[in-house]
Each structure stands twice: as structure tokens, then as C-alpha cells.
Design a protein that fits this description.
With 502 residues, this protein is mainly α. The protein has 23 helices and 4 strands. The protein has helices at residues 2-21, 28-41, 71-85, 88-102, 110-145, 150-160, 163-166, 173-188, 192-205, 209-220, 223-233, 235-244, 273-281, 286-289, 292-303, 306-321, 340-353, 355-374, 385-393, 400-406, 410-428, 438-455, 459-484; strands spanning 22-23, 57-60, 63-66, 398-399. A hairpin with a 2-residue loop joins strand 2 (57-60) and strand 3. The protein is globular. The model is unreliable at 485-502 (pLDDT under 50).
């Protein structure tokens, strides 16, 4: 039993290791969270000393504040204080200063470039570890619906969706997703009070998680869930009271520098069908870069889990109602990250019933997300064509090996790619059976490549994804053929006879 458990967890540990070794360049979003961490460490919510490092800020009564929900900073603060006490923060700051000097004219704000090593320290604690917990939860829940396919579903979601890049960056999406999905997992185990607590904490980490928690509350129909959510979310109004003098005053009330934020409720108005279409079919749309979500959606439909379908639908509607649907310089609609673990449950069903098709789409998706993650996930204006130039120039993100002297080219990125490959191989070995014909699967992958080629800008990424998808289909089909081939019968003069394997 212990060996079987280890076998299913090893791919998830390898993938979490890949998340950890990547030292992503910081950005304005991360800077806003990091500024709040430093402010809290100084005993205040004001980020006046660091406000020039981020555009994600609010201005209230003569002072600057982070516009971000405070939960990620709250979770990071003990780790920041501990690493600062042992000198790691100082060493990271020195490394950042060195990188800034060496890369004169580096992309972006020099303040942001300089803080990258410290932000990586916070990412390891507040994002990578929750990402590992999320993968374990996805595997566990998926096993309830499609036994034997949970590990593969978790790895496919972790490599072939936006969970991959956002598990390597200091954003609140993955920690909030882990808490919200944890609430769902706890409800399945009939622990409504703990589920509500996790849901309330999810909102503390990321405000839009409230939409998911609301769906879970309606599904649970439990006063204990509501009580838990109230307790989990209680630090938010207390923070507002401390920072702004009112429990109802939110940081987004005074956001600066973003036109459209004042529309509706914090930039949320009525859902726009055209925007919903763009979220799926723009060059960085979900179905263009990560077609495996189509298989996951089909799996949810087959499962007839209305609560999971409702969560995904509500997330899409909210995103289609937001004034900045893609969330700025991103590799895709990042506000949908919170719904991806719920979609991954359907992915397990799709793997069981249409293995070759799902593996083909998962491989194509993994190529897109790997390129986005190692090249430039915070891509300016969603210009995916830029990824081609960065790959050709070998201008990639740093890893720990790169920071140690291997540079930020192909040599430096090898540890990350090796760990991702290990996770995929180990996960594939856990599949109990392969179903579905190769011809249909190849046709589906080809149809995706045609749509992505027309809708997208990253032609090379689409071609590479199509090749990877086709290769995955062929390998899976051959594996299925071998598993169905009967063993040769050996006649003997005795009463026993070797039977073909079933």
C-alpha cells in the first residue's frame, strides 16, 4: 500500500520540484504583493516606500496601498520574517542587485528586476507548496470519480493548463484555487465547517474566489459551511478596518492608473458574449493554447456533476463581465485559474473513456504552457509571437541552476524541463488502461491545430504542439495494442493449458 501511494505521488512531487527550481522574473502584480509583505513586516499596511515598484496600487488619504487581497501577504509574512532572520533575504537582495548590474537595460522596472530573488523565496513558500497540495487534492478527488486516473489527471492539469505558469509566479491564483478546491474536497468528506473555513480563506487570498465559494455554499446548504466561511473571511474586514478605518472599505475602492476599474462593481458589469468567446479563442485563449480543457469539459458533462459545471460556468461568466478579461500581460485568462482544478476532475473521466484523444490534447497543451512558462509568461499585450524570438535567442527564464552560473539559456532551463518530463513519464505509467482509437484522436488533434493556427499568433508553438499531440496518440495507441494482444498459447501434454491474457 505504501509503495502504491508513493508511486502515485512521485509524479506530483517531481512536478512541484519543477515549479520550485524556476526563478521567474518578477512583475507589477508580484511587486504589489511583495510591497504589502514588507509593509506588514514594518507594522503598517501602507506601501509608500515601495509604491514606485508597482502599478497595482491604491491611493487613500495621502498614502499608497496594495490593491491586492491581503491573504497572500499574510501567509508570506512568517516565512519572510524567518528567512530574513537567518540572512536569506539579505543574500537574495544582494543577488538581485548583481543581476540588475549585469543586465543593464533589463526588461521592465529595475526595482522589479532587483527584487526577483526575494520574490522567488516567497513564491516557494506561498505558491509552490500550495500548488503541490492542490495537485494532491486533484488526484484524490479525481480518484473518487475515475479510479486509477487521478494522478494522470493532476499532472495533465499541472502541465497543460495555466496552473503551470502560475504555480511558478508570486500570484494569488494558485493558493486561492488550492483553498477553494480544498473546500470542495472537504464537502465531499462531509466536513462543512472546515470546508467553509477553507472557502473563507480563499476569498481572503483572492476576492473573486467568492464566486466559487457562493456556488459551494448553495450546493452544501449547510449553516456550518456559512459559519466556517465567515470565520475564514473575518480577517478581511478586520484588515480593512485597520488599514482604511472601515470594514467595508476595500483596497480597490481607490485604485489608481487603471481606466475601467470604476465600471460596475470593481470593474465587473454584465457578462459579454463576445468577451467569453475571446477568452476561449483569442491567441492566448484557453482552447487555443490549452485544448486539454475541452476534454476536461467533456468529462464533466459525462460525469453530470452539476456543482462542478456550475463553478466553471460562473467563473467564465465573471471573467466575461470584467473590464480587463485577460488580466494584463498574461499567457492566458488568468482569472480562470481558480476553476481549473474543478475542470481537472472531468479530465480524469476523459482519460478513462477517451484516453488517446485526451493524451493527445494534453501533450499539445503541455507544449504551449511549457513555452509560455520558460520564455515569458508575463507576455506584453499577449503577443505570443514574441515567444518564437525568445526561444530562438535562448533568452529564457532563470532557474536555480541558471542563478548558480548556468545562465538563462537552454542549459540553465534543463533542470526544469527534466523534472517536468519525469513527472509526465511517471504519471503515464500509472494509467491502468488506454481506450480510444488513434485515427479519431489524430483527427481531433489535427482539428485543434487548424483552429489554433488560424486563431493564434504562435505558429511554431502550434506546430510543435500538434507534433507532440500526434506522438502521444501514437504511443498510447501502440501501448493499448500491446496490452490487448493475447499471449501465445503453449500446449502441453498435461491437463493444464496456458490461457491468453485478458
Amino acid at each position: 500500500m505504501a509503495r502504491a501511494t508513493l508511486r502515485t505521488l512521485l509524479p506530483l512531487l517531481a512536478l512541484a520540484g519543477a515549479f520550485a527550481v524556476l526563478v521567474q522574473a518578477s512583475g507589477h502584480n508580484q511587486s504589489s504583493h511583495y510591497a504589502l509583505v514588507r509593509a506588514l513586516d514594518d507594522g503598517t499596511a501602507r506601501i509608500d516606500r515601495w509604491h514606485t515598484s508597482t502599478v497595482d496600487k491604491a491611493y487613500f488619504e495621502g498614502h499608497y496601498y496594495s490593491v491586492k487581497a491581503p491573504g497572500l501577504a499574510f501567509a508570506s509574512l512568517p516565512w519572510y520574517a524567518a528567512t530574513d532572520a537567518v540572512g536569506l533575504v539579505e543574500r537574495a537582495e544582494s543577488a538581485g542587485e548583481r543581476v540588475t548590474r549585469e543586465e543593464e537595460g533589463a526588461r521592465g522596472n529595475p526595482e522589479i528586476v532587483e527584487q526577483t530573488p526575494v520574490v522567488w523565496l516567497l513564491t516557494f513558500w506561498a505558491v509552490v507548496l500550495p500548488a503541490l497540495a492542490l495537485l494532491v487534492l486533484v488526484r484524490s478527488v479525481a480518484e473518487r470519480y475515475a479510479p486509477g486516473y487521478g494522478t494522470a489527471a493532476a499532472v495533465a492539469a499541472g502541465t497543460g493548463t495555466l496552473l503551470l505558469p502560475y504555480s511558478t509566479m508570486y500570484y494569488s491564483h494558485v493558493p486561492a484555487a488550492a483553498l477553494a478546491f480544498g473546500a470542495f474536497a472537504l464537502l465531499l468528506r462531509e466536513r462543512p465547517l472546515l470546508a467553509g473555513l477553507a472557502g473563507g480563506l480563499a476569498v481572503l487570498v483572492e476576492y473573486p474566489a467568492a464566486f466559487i465559494v457562493l456556488v459551494l455554499a448553495i450546493w452544501a446548504r449547510s449553516p456550518r459551511f456559512v459559519l466556517g466561511a465567515f470565520v475564514g473571511g473575518l480577517p478581511l474586514p478586520l484588515y480593512n478596518l485597520w488599514a482604511f478605518g472601515s470594514v467595508t472599505h476595500m483596497s480597490y475602492d481607490d485604485v489608481v492608473g487603471f481606466e475601467g476599474q470604476e465600471e460596475g462593481l470593481f470593474g465587473i458589469s454584465l457578462p459579454d458574449p463576445a468577451t467569453a468567446f475571446e477568452l476561449l479563442f483569442e491567441p492566448t485563449g484557453l482552447l487555443v493554447l490549452t485544448p486539454v480543457v475541452a476534454a476536461a469539459a467533456w468529462g464533466l458533462w459525462r460525469l453530470r456533476s452539476w456543482v462542478l459545471i456550475a463553478i466553471v460556468a460562473v467563473a467564465l461568466l465573471y471573467n466575461a463581465a470584467y473590464y480587463l478579461p485577460f488580466g494584463g500581460d498574461t499567457p492566458g485568462p488568468r482569472f480562470l485559474v481558480g476553476a481549473l482544478p474543478f475542470l481537472a476532475v472531468g479530465l480524469a473521466v476523459a482519460l478513462r473513456e477517451r484516453t488517446t484523444i485526451t493524451l493527445g490534447l494534453a501533450a499539445a497543451s503541455a507544449v504551449g504552457m511549457l513555452v509560455a512558462t520558460i520564455a515569458e509568461p508575463q507576455i506584453v499585450n499577449q503577443d505570443t509571437g514574441r515567444w518564437h524570438d525568445l526561444l530562438a535567442d535562448g533568452d529564457l527564464q532563470y532557474t536555480l541552476a541558471g542563478a548558480a552560473g548556468a545562465g538563462h539559456g537552454w542549459l540553465g532551463i534543463l533542470p526544469f524541463l527534466a523534472l517536468v518530463a519525469l513527472a509526465i513519464v511517471l504519471a503515464a505509467r500509472t494509467l491502468p488502461a488506454v481506450s480510444g482509437g488513434a485515427a479519431v484522436a489524430l483527427a481531433v488533434v489535427g482539428a485543434w491545430a487548424l483552429v489554433a493556427g488560424v486563431a493564434g499568433d504562435a505558429v511554431f508553438v502550434t506546430l510543435a504542439g500538434a507534433v507532440a499531440g500526434a506522438a502521444a496518440v501514437v504511443i498510447a495507441a501502440r501501448s493499448a495494442g500491446r496490452s490487448r494482444s493475447p499471449a501465445p498459447c503453449r500446449r502441453s501434454t498435461g491437463r493444464s493449458r496456458t490461457r491468453p491474457r485478458s
